[in-house]
Amino acid sequence: MNNKYHDIIKELDVKLETLEYDTSDILYRAEQGIKITKQALEQLKFMVVDQKFGKAISEIEFFKNIKPKVFSKLIYYVKLFSIESKRPRGSSKSQIKYFNMHIERLQTYFNENLDFYHYHRRGATVFDEQYFLRGTADLRLFPDNFHCFTDENFSTGHDSTVATILAYDLLIVYLKREIDKLETISNGTELQAIQKTSNFTWTSQKVDLIELIYALQSTDAINNGAVDIKDIARVIERIFKIDLGDFYRAFLEIRMRKKGRTKFLDLLKENLEKRMEEIDD
User: Fold this and answer.
1) In the listed set 130, 163, 186, which residue is the last one of a domain according to the structure?
2) Are residues 247 and 153 in the same domain?
3) Do residue 162 and residue 77 come from a single domain?
4) Predicted TM-score of the model (pTM)
5) Least confident of 32-41, 73-82, 192-201, 223-232
6) I need a surface site. Which of 21, 24, 100, 268 has the fewest CB within 10 A?
7) Mean pLDDT of all residues in 167-182
8) Does 162 lie in the same domain as 137?
């Protein structure tokens, strides 16, 4: 990846991570997320418009993998603001119904773009020149795709489709998390009411604990695997007096790490082996 692109994406990720953890007001968070991602997208656009990539593979890489990473965040926050601004203020039941309706709508988008969805998910490349080079989109393949008309210098046939897929993945994770919260409240097991039973406090980063939770569930170490990730998270939250927040989204971020996707687990292994060696000596 071009170092300048990398710097823009890294700076964006840091700003959004700070925003997510420091801002509880969801509408304000969405508004600021839109503002921050727009700025990053404009930076990319300034660098790319009228630019000669040199090789087609470089242009494909940009519109297939780089621009969608930023554009997806903009789509996510725009949709998030729309959904949350119209969120029912009544019972948990009505809110759960509202969120499930939106999940179904997002899933419908995947179903309507199923061929391209599978193309993207399996990392296929055979149609990349048609999908991710400027000015080469074959409208006969996807006549309903109008994204390439928005800005010919900064759009291809399907970079926006990739961004939408990434954004909707994040939205579904968010909506499921909100449903989990509402179900927890309706069952009378709010976190604050039960934290008093534990004297343990988690002193590492939240993302480390989330990584550990997913590792435990992935290895069937609890109830032989017959337990949902949200149930493990709820127990861990009680034990360590911590609110893990949107752990579904945090796991997506863990998966997106380019290197060292299991940083905390690697650290655990390293420190345990070091301790054993010290005892042996």
Assistant:
1) 186
2) no
3) yes
4) 0.69
5) 192-201
6) 24
7) 88
8) yes
For the cut 80, the answer to whether the pLDDT of residue 77 exceeds it is yes
Range of the domain at 70: 3-186
Does residue 205 share a domain with residue 73? no
Q: Sign (positive/negative) of CA torsion 79, 81, 83, 84? A: positive
Closest CA to 130 of 44, 64, 181, 33: 64
Name, in order, each residue with C-beta under 8 angstroms of 270's C-beta and a sequence gap of 6 or more: none
For 55-69, 167-181, 193-207, 225-239, which range has the lowest pLDDT when averaged over its residues? 193-207
pLDDT at residue 143, rounded to an integer: 43
On whether both 24 and 79 belong to a single domain, the answer is yes
